[in-house]
Design brief:
Number of strands: 0
Shape: globular
Distance between the termini: 34 Å
Low-confidence stretches: none
Helix content: over 70%
Largest sheet: none
Radius of gyration: 18 Å
Structural class: mainly alpha
Mean pLDDT: 85
Oligomer: single chain
Order of helices and strands: HHHHHHHH
Length: 209
């Protein structure tokens, strides 16, 4: 089951990096974005990702990580389609922000799912595999996006990203859902969220980030 997760993440991350090529290329060449506007585009992904991650991490602890991954990547497919039809730069900002929100769901869900699929003694090896599932697409995703531009035109990277994300979904469905709901945790959700933010504010390294 863990290998299905690795393969699914590799495909989904190819979609992620193809999307960055598509959105930034479209911003510059279609909408004539200035350096400031390009920075806003990139930040629109990061802001929603950073803002939503703490709360979604708590959700991953209490709900099904598998279902979170399926929901996130299905939503990402929709957001990719919206980005591909962007009539203006603000529209592209919004679609990128939504894509960042979907990725904010993916990261804690993926982290919560790994120890449910492998034995504790193999966690280091498993985390190394997950790192590979992130780094390999970082290399081949933009390269495939460039080929897609050459073959399919300016919308090619969007098509590649949507195809990669769509192909990852059947792999995620093969992963067993091993998270069980635990009684008494729902009441602590807000308290844990507040505690997490308080610890972040009092930890110099996290506060600097």
């Amino acid at each position: 089951p863990f290998l299905w997760l690795v393969l699914g993440e590799m495909l989904a991350n190819i979609g992620l990096w193809a999307f960055f090529v598509a959105s930034e290329g479209e911003a510059v060449f279609r909408f004539d974005a200035t350096p400031t506007q390009l920075g806003i585009l990139i930040s629109s992904y990061s802001v929603t990702f950073v803002a939503a991650s703490p709360a979604l991490g708590l959700v991953a602890d209490r709900w099904s990580p598998k279902r979170m991954l399926l929901l996130a990547h299905a939503s990402a497919f929709v957001f990719l389609f919206l980005a591909s039809r962007a009539p203006s730069l603000p529209w592209l900002y919004g679609a990128t922000a939504l894509f960042g929100l979907a990725e904010a769901v993916v990261w804690p869900a993926r982290g919560a799912l790994v120890p449910l699929l492998v034995k504790e003694r193999r966690l280091v090896q498993a985390n190394g595999m997950m790192g590979m599932a992130w780094q390999v697409p970082l290399v081949i995703g933009p390269a495939l996006a460039a080929v897609a531009v050459r073959v399919l035109g300016s919308d090619g990277p969007y098509y590649l990203a949507m195809a990669a994300v769509a192909l990852s979904l059947p792999l995620y469905t093969l992963i067993p859902d091993r998270r069980r709901p635990r009684a008494g945790e729902r009441e602590r959700f807000i308290a844990d969220l507040v505690t997490g933010f308080r610890e972040g504010l009092h930890t110099p390294v996290i506060r600097a980030v």
